[in-house]
Write a structure and sequence with these properties.
The protein contains five helices and no strands. The protein has 154 residues and is an all-alpha fold. The longest helix is centred in the N-terminal third of the chain and has 25 residues.
Length: 154
């Protein structure tokens, strides 16, 4: 049995840090644009940069550094990262756009219509390609910095 723990798991820590940094960037840019604190930005989806992309890119890159870039584990992590990033710009982005249209339709319904009081659908689901690329770069940079820190510490 290994003496390592979840608290020393380099790929997991990199993924968590990348997620936290991406969400923090959204939080502070939201404040800068709107001059109000929007705490939903700390956990919400959508926006710049993609926290999903930063998380999976950091995880895959850290696995590559730890286990080797030629191994099956890295190949698996990279493949799943690509699927997550593709999904963010494809299905999730289109679902968000459909939600916008549906919300507009419901908004224009007469007050007596049974759906007129429906809760609005969440519109900010997916990402544009630049948001995904920015998130991916953030994830890779996070893992590289983590790797350099790990090398310096050993």
């Amino acid at each position: 049995m290994s003496s390592s723990s979840i608290f020393t798991n380099y790929p997991l820590i990199c993924a968590f840090i990348a997620f936290a940094v991406a969400q923090s960037i959204k939080f502070f840019t939201s404040w800068y644009k709107e001059r109000r604190w929007d705490f939903k930005q700390l956990v919400g989806s959508g926006g710049m940069p993609s926290s999903h992309s930063s998380t999976v890119a950091a995880l895959a890159t850290a696995i590559g550094f730890q286990e080797g870039f030629g191994g099956a584990l890295f190949a698996t992590a990279l493949t799943l990262s690509c699927i997550v990033m593709y999904d963010a710009t494809g299905v999730r982005l289109q679902a968000g756009r459909q939600a916008e249209v549906l919300n507009q339709i419901v908004y224009e319904l007469p007050a007596e219509h049974p759906l007129a009081e429906s809760r609005p659908l969440h519109e900010l689901l997916g990402h544009t390609p630049p948001q995904v690329v920015a998130g991916g770069l953030l994830g890779v940079i996070t893992a590289v910095v983590g790797h350099l820190i790990t090398l310096a510490a050993s």
